[in-house]
Amino acid sequence: MRIPLLGKTASVDVLDAEGWKETWLRFQNKTVDYVSDPGMWMAILFTVVKILILLIVGRLIIKLADKIIDGMLEAREKGPIHFSRRRTETIGKLVRNIVTYVVNFILILMILSQFNVNLGPVLAGAGVLGLAIGFGAQSLVKDVITGFFIIFEDQFAVGDVIQVGTYKGTVEEIGLRVTRIKSWTGEIHILPNGTINQVTNFSVNNSLAVIDVNVTYETDIDQAIQILRETADAYYEKSMDIVKEPQVLGVQTMGVSEITLRLTAECKPNAQFGVSRDLYSLIKKAFESSGIQIPYPRVVTYHRNEKAEL
What we know:
Keywords: Cell membrane, Membrane, Transmembrane, Transmembrane helix. May play a role in resistance to osmotic downshock. Its main location: membrane. Belongs to the MscS (TC 1.A.23) family. The protein has 310 residues and is α+β, with helices and mostly antiparallel strands. It folds into 3 domains: 39-136, Helix Hairpins; 159-201, SH3 type barrels; 207-290, Alpha-Beta Plaits (2-Layer Sandwich). Helices cover 56% and strands 16% of the residues. The chain contains 7 helices and 8 strands; from the N terminus they run αααααββββββαββα. It has a 5-stranded antiparallel β-sheet. A hairpin with a 4-residue loop joins strand 7 (247-254) and strand 8. Helix 2 packs antiparallel against helix 3 (85-114) and helix 6 crosses helix 7 (272-290).
């Protein structure tokens, strides 16, 4: 009863084997025809040539952009307001990286288009990804953008004394994300660049030392002014921190028990504190040697001796 079934099964296996053999032969023939087709090789050759041309053009664009950036930075250094060497290198490296990333991204899209890849979904996916990153890292993006403009606009440099809000000190480091400020007592303040809204830079222009000296009403004003002028001129001759000859302005105010004389001296940035301390000390010694008194609080006690009446 099962012999016919076995025969039928064997015949089916033979047919399947012959079908697979024919399919394999057709595949081989199509492969040989495709590989031996001159048009296919010409298309591949043209595609490879186009990709090579795109890569060469991309590299040339990057090199040309580097030359333009270097020329712009050199021109900025020769201008009246120039960057420090460290800042110039930072800006140049940052701009070069941005140009390189943009050019490489465009190259990738153009190469994909040579393989008939639909760029619509790719661009849409990149846009959605960029939007998600932008929403998820808003503070980071704000810090980076603000840091770039701080460096590019030369708002302050490493070594400058600045004040940001309640923080005042010397700039230790300027990064694209954070700025480090060291206070005069040694604390390090790390500020995200996005929080730097207003900056006061004390190291851009020369500073002014203002010295107010009080004398008594009994003092000869002309003599006191002359001593102030001689003391300031002598200190100016040996000091490296004063950039202009000090000026004695004269009487500033007249108080209850003292007359205030004012002296000013233009100094190097942030040097006014040391200059003021030195001048106060020298003026005190000069007044003492000349017999000029500096007013100070005095207490006068009166004793009344009265006899008691009986």
